[in-house]
Structures are given as structure tokens and as C-alpha cells.
Design brief:
It holds the Pfam family FCD. This protein has about 240 residues and is mainly α. It is built from 9 helices and 3 strands, in the order αβααββαααααα.
Length: about 240
């Protein structure tokens, strides 16, 4: 019988990790592996396996897993422990409704505090998105563009919740963008949003953001419905 490959084998640890950095190194390493698909959805992450891999005790592993759970990248499942969370599924509409509320508020609070350097950074991400064809990189750049506009919101807890939603979308885009048939994405929405933000027009900025996210709801809902359609046909 062929043994299934262990996703943890894709993770390379370079030398001993200093004790004071263990939690953050483990968290960032696992986060990257989850986001880029090396550790796929449904994978159970055992604390002892991770402790052995990183050459540390179970305590920093436990703390790192808690952080990843708080970022909605892991779920704690009975008898399995920490399991890599699924990508956006049939609740895409509800997920985006919540994102619209959170991101709109983050944008409102951030706009008055944004500086020229923030605008330039956001514009640079749009330029990169215009020419990027790697779907993994598109997901990352999309998240970074939005966070550049929200980053000055003074409520840190709000920003963490916003980034959780963007992380979830990034994972979904990485694995589904090509299948959704969108090809090279137009950045007109992003450019219009950035112009309104630069003008400090909060109400227009929020309106454009809501329009942009609602377009995402429509595309993802349509895609999920199309992938579910064959199953419905075969069940008749």
C-alpha cells in the first residue's frame, strides 16, 4: 500500500530556533505553508509532530496553533486537534457581508490618518496586479493592497478581524481564481477606490469598497453554484 505523503515534509527548518523566537517562527512558517497550499485543507496538525519538526517543546507549538486558529486558518476538531480550515464554501455571501461591515469601518477610520507613502504603496500594488499572471501572487497582492488602505485604523482588534477575512479570500483566490475563468483581472475598481481615498472622500470610498466587495460575492457565489451543479444532476 502506498503511503500518503506527509505535508509537513514540505517544511524546511534551518537550524535550531532561539527559544524567544520559537512561537513566531512556527506561526509564520505554518501560516505560509497553509496559504500557499503545501499544507492542504483538512490536514490535522499534531503538536508533538510539530515540536519534533521544529526542535522545540510543545508550548511554543501550542501558542502558534492558537494564533493560527484566531486567524481562522485552523479549526479545533474533536479527536483530531488542530485541523487546517476549509476554503470559502457555500457561506460566501455571509462571509462577504461580514467583510463589508468590518472593512468599511476600518477604511473610515484609516482614511484621515493615511499619508502619501501609504497611497504610493497601494498604487504600487495595483501596478503589480495589472501585470501579474501567477494566481498565488495575485491573491497576496490583493490582500496587501486592501491592508495598505486600512492599516492606519487605530483599532488593532478590528484590523485583525479584517486581515482574517482577507486571509480567507487569499486562500480561496489562490486555488480557484484560474478555474473561475477571470483571467487577467481589471484593476479599475482598485484605482477608483484609491482615488477616492486620496481625496479623503470617506463616503465615496466606502461606497466604492462596498460595490467592489459585492462584485466579489456575485462572482464567487456564481462559481460555487456552478461547481455544485454536476452533483445535483447526478443525484437525480
Amino acid at each position: 500500500m502506498t503511503q500518503k505523503p506527509n505535508p509537513l515534509n514540505s517544511i524546511k527548518v534551518n537550524g535550531p530556533i532561539p527559544a524567544h523566537l520559537a512561537r513566531s517562527v512556527i506561526e509564520e512558517t505554518l501560516r505560509s505553508a497553509i496559504l500557499d497550499g503545501r499544507i492542504p485543507c483538512g490536514t490535522a496538525l499534531r503538536q508533538q509532530d510539530l515540536a519534533d519538526l521544529f526542535g522545540v517543546s510543545r508550548m511554543p507549538v501550542r501558542e502558534a496553533l492558537r494564533q493560527l486558529e484566531a486567524q481562522a486558518l485552523l479549526n479545533v476538531v474533536a479527536h483530531k486537534g488542530a485541523v487546517v480550515a476549509a476554503l470559502v464554501q457555500g457561506d460566501a455571501t455571509e462571509t462577504y457581508e461580514l467583510r463589508i461591515l468590518l472593512e468599511s469601518e476600518a477604511l473610515r477610520r484609516s482614511i484621515p490618518l493615511l499619508e502619501t507613502a501609504d497611497f504610493e504603496l497601494a498604487a504600487r500594488y495595483i501596478d503589480e496586479l495589472e501585470t501579474e499572471h501567477n494566481y498565488t501572487e495575485i491573491g497576496r497582492l490583493n490582500r496587501l493592497f486592501h491592508m495598505a488602505l486600512y492599516s492606519k485604523a487605530p483599532n488593532r482588534r478590528l484590523l485583525r478581524l479584517v486581515e482574517d477575512g482577507l486571509n480567507e479570500e487569499e486562500r480561496f483566490l489562490r486555488f480557484n481564481l484560474e478555474a473561475m475563468g477571470l483571467g487577467k483581472l481589471s484593476q479599475e475598481d482598485h484605482r477608483n477606490l484609491l482615488r477616492a481615498v486620496e481625496d479623503r472622500n470617506i463616503e465615496l470610498s466606502v461606497e466604492l469598497l462596498e460595490h467592489h466587495l459585492n462584485r466579489g460575492v456575485e462572482v464567487i457565489t456564481r462559481y460555487l453554484a456552478s461547481t455544485a451543479a454536476p452533483d445535483k444532476k447526478t443525484s437525480r
